Amino acid sequence: MAASENTPSDKPEPESTDAELLQNQISEGANHDQQPIEVVFDVDQILNDAEQVARLDDHESATPLNPTPKRPPGPGLFEAICWMFGVFGAHFAGIILFIVGTFFYLLTTTNLGKTSEEIRKQFTQFFADHTLEMAGVEQGIFVLIVMLAVGLRFGKGVLAKLNLQPFAISTGVLLFICVLPLSMLSGEFYRLAFEAWSTFTEQIPWLQQFNEMQTMELVKEMAENSPLWALVLVIAVFPAIGEEIVFRGVIGRGLLARWGLIPGILITSVMFGMVHAHPAHVIAVIPLGMFMHFVYYVTRSFWAPILVHFMNNAFAVTIAKMIGKLPENAAKLGDETQAVHPLILLAAVLFIAVVCFYLWKTRVKYVNPNGSEWNPGYVSNESPPPGNNITRERGRAALGFYPGMTLLYINFLVMMSFFGLQ
User: How many domains, in total, are found in the chain?
Assistant: First the structure.
């Protein structure tokens, strides 16, 4: 026991009794025993606090939440309009390149005429004999320009922004059988729009110049003297890649992020229709563009709209090529002037509507480890950044959808068989 320190004093302290000494010893011992208990208690509290902080940090690092909302990416509406006109410019560049190549080809292989009229006739005849080649160069240059422009616009990570993830095989089969109903609906839209346009141009004759821009008439002319594989490459493959990159990949990305899902799809599809020049064709392809953009959103795969676009164009080209070998009723599928029976249209609409509802129920989502849906802070189809434990999950639909869609498609085929084209 440590001796107590006494303050010097002139007066001597009174001596402590034995009882007081014993009480002082007990009190000092108690104070001595309490000190390590308080120290141990403080250490344990610090360890507990540190453990809780560590667990919280681990939980936050393993559970990436959606990023703080940020400014949606471009293009905005003005830039989207510029991209739309850029499509015309890219096609024009392809035509100019073909004309220049034709000039050097004629210059080295034939004798060019001495007058401008003779040269014009030579060019006109060459273009008439090589329509498919001119279309191939035009479309090929268009795709190359688009790829270069998109690479410059998006920079690093362009593939992640487009999202090239594969989609389910069952979805691909479903999209395949949608081609015929979609073609029937699109053809009927074209017929009605063309009738209205023809009535309108009777009052304003100079507008009939737009009738020279009918794509299907050009396709029918090329189909007579061109192999099917070349037609599919030029009319189906190139447009499916180039136009989908521009409209669903670039324009649609910015408009969906800034305007939302439904307005973004609608505006993008209207722009997609406008590049098809002829007013009747514009009206006909707007619903098709809406369907392709919807498919892109629900599958989170850029390959899905490319597939739909390709199959639609390939179907039209195949019908145009084989129209002389098909039965009379089937051959009418390639004639947009033929009216479609209302029951066929009703069956097609019902089937496509149920398919869209099914695709929405089974749409693909990106899910955080905590179960919340991941998004970059705006409506988007882009894939999430790697390394964040975000999973790609596809929704489930009720089993009743499968027999229901089967019966509706059979009903559509039965209506086609019974009523055909009027």
Answer: 1
